[in-house]
Amino acid sequence: MDKTSEKILLGFPESVESFTVYGGSDKDGIPENTEVTLHKGDCACVCGKTGSGKTRLLEDIEYLASGDSPSGRKMRINGLELTEELRLELENRFCACLSQSMNFVMELSCRDFIFQHAGSRGIPCTEELMEKILTCANSLAGEPLHPEDMITALSGGQSRALMIADIAFLSAAPSVLIDEPENAGIDKDAIIRLLAEKGKIVLISTHDPILALSCEKRIFIENGGIRGIVIRTAAEKELLKELRNQEAQIKEIRNQIRGGKNIG
Fold first, then answer.
1. Which of 38, 111, 172, 222 qualifies as a cystine partner to 147, CB 3.0-4.6 A?
2. Can you count the helices (H) and strands (E) in the chain?
């Protein structure tokens, strides 16, 4: 293994400053004449119609594609071309992923799940850390989680909120890939703030305009190919404020409905 690869491994994950996706081709074989680079603390979104290839891009990043995926894309870390040896060393370590659908199958309480998951990663877990993770999850989800709640009984939103908090506090992966978090009914802005503060490189596939405009970069996908990188404008930042105000009003109405109250 060359010295640059060794340096990445020895300092992993702190040694990862950026990753770059070099274009392959779309579903018709037309080349993608573009590249995408994201750095520590960056949060970008992937936008496009259903079936356009957003999930394919996330999978290429997750598996550190080297021209061997259907898209033909290639990944670089810190600008370094990945050897097969380095890819194997970083397998299942480079990305933390959260898919659209996820279900717990083990009969564990939230408390036991956090302790066991921390133990599997070699992280000493304390009651204080467990409480921090649950507090974080509760800041994202609508319905609160409790240490004694069974994970198999959690709602979709609660499950994803727990896993996002778990990723933030327990995962050493330098990058996080999230597929359509808006479908889970969790606080979208809080997700971005939380993971960016942890120094993660965050890439989110979304149809949600507020989530998309919360990111500085939008990767536009069409027919399986990257068509362009859209940088957020000053006008879009102002529009985002309006959309957030509207969503806050809708959230208040939603809470009243959930609480069995009449509106108005």
1. 111
2. 9, 10
* Residue 235: other Cβ atoms inside 10 A: 8
Domain that holds residue 62: 12-94+174-231
- pLDDT tens track for 33-45: 999 999 999 999 9
CA-nearest of 219, 123, 216, 233 to 168 is 123
Instruction: For the sheet with 35-39, list strands across it.
Output: 35-39, 18-22, 74-77, 80-81
Does position 135 have pLDDT exceeding 90, yes or no? yes
CATH number of the domain to which 75 belongs = 3.40.50.300
* Tally of domains in the chain: 3
Could you report the per-residue pLDDT of 201-251, keeping only the tens digit for each?
999 999 999 999 999 999 999 999 999 999 999 999 999 999 999 988 988
Domain stop point among 144, 172, 200: 172
Average pLDDT over residues 13-20: 92
Picking from 125, 154, 172, the residue at the C-terminal end of a domain is 172
User: Cβ distance 22 to 65 under 8 Å?
Assistant: no
Same domain for 156 and 139: yes
Q: Are residues 249 and 155 in the same domain?
A: no
Strands 18-22 and 43-47: unpaired
109 and 136 within one domain: yes
Q: Is the pTM of this model over 0.90?
A: no
Residues 216 and 43 sit within 8 Å (Cβ to Cβ) = yes
pLDDT for 30 equals 97
Spell out a b/e string for 124-157, using b for 16 or more CB atoms within 10 Å of the CB, else e. ebeeebbeebbebbbebbbeebeeebebeebebb
